[in-house]
Amino acid sequence: MIRVTIIDDERIIKSVSDLEEQDIRMAWAQENEKSPGHCIFSKNGEIFEIADKDNVFELLVRATLNHLDLNGVKRGYCKNEALFPELKRLGFTEKDGVCEVDIATFFKPCCSHK
């Protein structure tokens, strides 16, 4: 089973990323002794990079948006155009060079059962 941990220790984050941003976080996927990927993001909702080594892109985005939602962030967004195709597949929309999503809408069920 893959587990995702949110890491805020900048020393650990900088060991896998060259970003010089402030207040960055990392969603770190872990399965046994290996990591199938990670997502680097800011605490204000910007997704900077996603390293997907084993088909965990959606899992990382969901974990990231869930963490942001629990911390009161309303919008997730990304300016890294290389990630746009996969983010759009998950429901993000692109406008003026930014791919974004309303986090509350992202987690709403797609339909209701009566």
- The helical percent reads 25-40%
Q: Approximately how much beta-strand content do the residues carry?
A: 35-45%
Round the mean pLDDT to the nearest integer and report it.
93
Q: Enumerate the strands of the largest sheet in spatial order, edge to edge or round the barrel.
A: 1-2-3-4-5-7-6
How many beta-strand runs?
A: 7
- Helices, by number, come to 4
As an assembly, this protein is single chain
Main beta sheet: strand number and arrangement?
A: 7 strands, mixed
Order of helices and strands: EHEEEHEHEEH
Distance between the termini: 33 Å
What gyration radius follows from the Cα positions, in whole Å?
14 Å
**Low-pLDDT regions:** none
Output the structural class. Answer: alpha+beta
Principal-axes geometry comes out as: globular
Could you characterize the architecture of this molecule?
This protein is α+β, with helices and mostly antiparallel strands. It is built from 4 helices and 7 strands. A 7-stranded mixed beta sheet has the order 1-2-3-4-5-7-6. The chain is globular. The N and C termini lie far apart (33 Å). The mean pLDDT is 93.
Describe the structure concisely for a colleague.
The protein has 114 residues and is of the alpha+beta class. The chain contains 4 helices and 7 strands, in the order E-H-E-E-E-H-E-H-E-E-H.
